[in-house]
What we know:
The protein is an alpha/beta fold and 242 residues long. It has one domain (2-233): Alkaline Phosphatase, subunit A. Helices cover 31% and strands 16% of the residues. It has eight helices and ten strands. The strands form three sheets. A six-stranded mixed beta sheet has the order 2-10-7-1-6-5. It has a two-stranded antiparallel sheet with strand order 3-4. The longest helix has 18 residues, at 118-135. The protein is globular and about 50 Å long. The protein starts with a strand and ends in a 9-residue tail after the last helix.
Amino acid sequence: xxxxxxxxxxxxxxxxxxxxxxxxxxxxxxxxxxxxxxxxxxxxxxxxxxxxxxxxxxxxxxxxxxxxxxxxxxxxxxxxxxxxxxxxxxxxxxxxxxxxxxxxxxxxxxxxxxxxxxxxxxxxxxxxxxxxxxxxxxxxxxxxxxxxxxxxxxxxxxxxxxxxxxxxxxxxxxxxxxxxxxxxxxxxxxxxxxxxxxxxxxxxxxxxxxxxxxxxxxxxxxxxxxxxxxxxxxxxxxxxxx
Length: 242
């Protein structure tokens, strides 16, 4: 199976630009589900840990990636033994349960994957894709956090479509001819900054806000954040060719 996470994948953007994104246009006919989540939970640390550890978002104890002024380390996460790749064998590429993201293979990313520059984000997307192509024959978890990073500073700007088109093309290549089960999913979406009470701090120069909507699409329908976790462990996504 292949599980593909895309940080900040926006149902608003996909639906508005579906004619420019041929791969996503096809995928949005495959068990596409946009799920509303609580605004308090529309944070990457919360939602990625909810998906990969099978914990309801409101109960995830890690609400951000920091302890005081430093990043949380993977070995410090008390529920890390719950992660899908701790329960069964997966190749993991850039899973954002911590920052920098977690991989169980060697992965060299520009600025450890933490860059906010659009061109460097797109370079990292290529590097993540190249690594995924090498490991797609086995069970694979691969995540792209770069859409979220570009959206922070390019929301409502025409150049954002360039990055979405790149993602569209990379995912098409990754899944071309693939006969196993796959799910593409997000942690939250993106939206205009609300006039009152947004999730992010608009004073930081960002041009968009997290949208409390999570997307799933692929060969199986997912109804709730933690369903994917249990579908994997129960074998619902095992290779139909086996």
